[in-house]
Amino acid sequence: MPRENLTQKRERAAEIEQRMFEHYGEGACSLDHVDPFTLTVAVILSAQCTDAAVNKVTPELFARFGTPEAMAAASIEDIEAIIHPLGFFRSKAKNLKACAQTVLAEFGGEVPRTMVDLQKLPGVGRKTANVVMCQAFRDPQGIAVDTHVFRIAHQLGFATRNDDTPEKVEAKLMKIYPQPDWLYINHQWVHFGREFCVARRPKCQECFLADICPSSGK
DNA sequence: ATCCCGAGGG
DNA sequence: CCCTCTGGAT
To answer: A181 catalytic, yes or no?
Structure first.
């Protein structure tokens, strides 16, 4: 099969994006939150655990420490006790407190609105910063590549074996998809990754992209 | 046994 | 570049 060129990838991506909209709309964020700070907290907590598990602990967490002021003043032990069912609870608790302190000390109590400043917050890397820029500020500066997006990009043939880091996959996707689509790709693909393109055994027989996916049935 | 909306540190 | 942090679900 001849290698697909960039123009062809873009055309296929446009068709995929249209179908994603038909199935998932703009892709609702499945992490419960009420503002940029609680979204940032929820995304930090979501590393290596399911969103459902995060949503189970955030009601109590936000009730007690739902603002930068409250979180910055909280004890690490109290935060750990609440988020304990999640993975990496020690480092996450430390990061949440330091993150809140940084928001207060460096950014006047407001979650910053640029990729550079967001990534100055402890616990916030490129993926989390991308989610906050898209979901909270509607200002896409990149594409959040998590485990789902990473896997699906390879399955769809938009990334190669050589693209072995989230950064490389993100760069490929940013060339293929127009910037307005960056807002929706992460959430739509996460839903898609849970429903059809699951890691273990993709449900290609039922998948609505099977006819335009190079990995279908493999 | 493997996976889940990663980030920090060495 | 690698390693570590972590527990629950399937």
So the answer is: no
Q: Which of A135, A158, A174 is the last residue of a domain?
A: A135
Chain center to CA of A121: 16
Q: Which of residues 48-77 of A touch strand C (CB under 7 A)?
A: 48-50, 53
Longest dimension (CA), chain A: 60
Residue-number span of the structural domain to which A77 is assigned? 36-135
pTM of the model: 0.93
Answer yes or no: is A131 CB < 7 A from strand B: yes
A105 and A153 assigned to the same domain: no
Q: Which of A101, A119, A135 is a domain's end point?
A: A135
* Backbone torsions φ then ψ of A120, nearest 5 degrees: -80, -15
- Asked if residue A118 and residue A54 are part of one domain, the reply reads yes
**Which amino acid does the sequence have at A130?**
N
Which nucleotides of chain B does any protein CB come within 7 A of?
2-8
| Model pLDDT for residues A91-137, shown as the tens digit of each residue | 999 999 999 999 999 999 999 999 999 999 999 999 999 999 999 99
